[in-house]
Amino acid sequence: MKKLKKLKKLILLLMVITSFVQPLTIYAASKTPAQKLDEQLEQAKKVELVQKFFRLSTSYDIKIDGKVVGTLTGDFWHPFGDSLKIESSDGTVIYSEQQSRRMLSLSIARGGVFYNQAGEFDGALRENVWALFWHQYQFLDKSGTVIAASRRNPWQLFSTGYQVKDTQGVKLYRATTERWHLTKQIKIERLGDDDKVSMKQMLIVTAIEEAIAESKAKDK
User: Fold this and answer.
1) Which DSSP helix (H) or strand (E) runs through 61?
2) What is the pLDDT of residue 25?
3) CA distance 138 to 116
4) What gap in Å lies between CA 214 and CA 216, rounded to an integer?
5) Rounded to an integer, what distance in angstroms lies between the CA atom of residue 197 and that of residue 83?
6) 74 in helix, strand or coil?
7) For 154-177, what is each residue's pLDDT tens digit?
8) CA–CA gap between residue 19 and residue 17 (Å, rounded)
9) Is residue 197 within 8 Å of residue 125, measured between CB atoms?
C-alpha cells in the first residue's frame, strides 16, 4: 500500500512538472529565428565576429559558443551613406544602422542612426572628431543624450582593442581584433549587466571601426 501511495505521488509530481514544462517548450518552439537571435545576442557574455572569405563588402559570421547564429554585413559604397545590418538565419534583418551625415573636419566625422527589427528609431551614433589619439564614437539614446563612448587603441601592434564606457567611466564592453588567423576574428566581451548599449550596437560599431582601419591601411 505504501509503495502504491509513493507511486501516485510520483505520478502527480510528474504531471505538475509536465504542466509547466510543456507550455515553455511550445513557446520556445514558436519563436522565429529573428527572435531567437535577438535573445541570444542580448543574453550572451561573449560574441565573436569572423570575417567571411571572398566578399567585396564587409561581411562577418556572428558566433556564440563557436556556433554561427547570424550574419553582420556592411555596405560602404552606398550613394546615400554607409549601412550595416544584422540578419538571422532566415535573412530577417533584426537590427541595422544607417549613416546620417558625413563631413570633413580633423578626420571624417561619421554619424549614424540605429533601427530595430520593426524599423523604429533606436538611438544614434556620433563620431567625436576632437578625440585626440583615441578614435571615439559616442552612443546616444532615443532622446539624443550621450550615454556611452567607444575608444579604439591605436598603439597595439598585432591586434586592435576597443572599449565602450558609459558616461561615468564604467566599462560596458571590450573587443579585440585578432589578425593572425586565416580570416579576421573579433572577440567581443560584455563586462557588466548594464544594458545602456546593446550587444547589437556594439557589433555594428566594431564593424564600422574595422572598416575605417582597413580603409586607412589601404591608403598608406
Assistant:
1) strand 58-64
2) 45
3) 19
4) 5
5) 19
6) strand
7) 665 556 788 999 999 999 999 998
8) 5
9) no
Whole-number Å distance between alpha carbons of 135 and 138: 10
The CA distance from 108 to 133, in Å, is: 14
Query: How many C-beta atoms surround the C-beta of residue 218 within 10 A?
Result: 7
The amino acid occupying position 198 is: S
β strands within 6-145, DSSP E: 46-51, 58-64, 67-75, 83-87, 93-104, 108-116, 121-127, 135-140
**Rg of the chain over CA atoms, in angstroms?**
22
Is 205 within 8 Å of 125 (Cβ atoms)? yes
Dihedral, CA of residue 55, residue 206, residue 131 and residue 139, to nearest 10: 130
pLDDT in tens, 3-34: 555 555 556 555 545 555 455 444 446 889 99
Grid cell listed for 193: 549587466
Q: Which residue, 140, 72, 139, 129, is CA-closest to 104?
A: 129
More confident: 130 or 58: 58
Question: To which residue does cell 552606398 refer?
Answer: 78
- DSSP secondary-structure letter at 105? S
Reported as a single tens digit per residue, the pLDDT across 60-80 is 999 999 999 999 998 866 555
The label of the residue with cell 548599449 reads 197
* Cell output for 165: 564606457
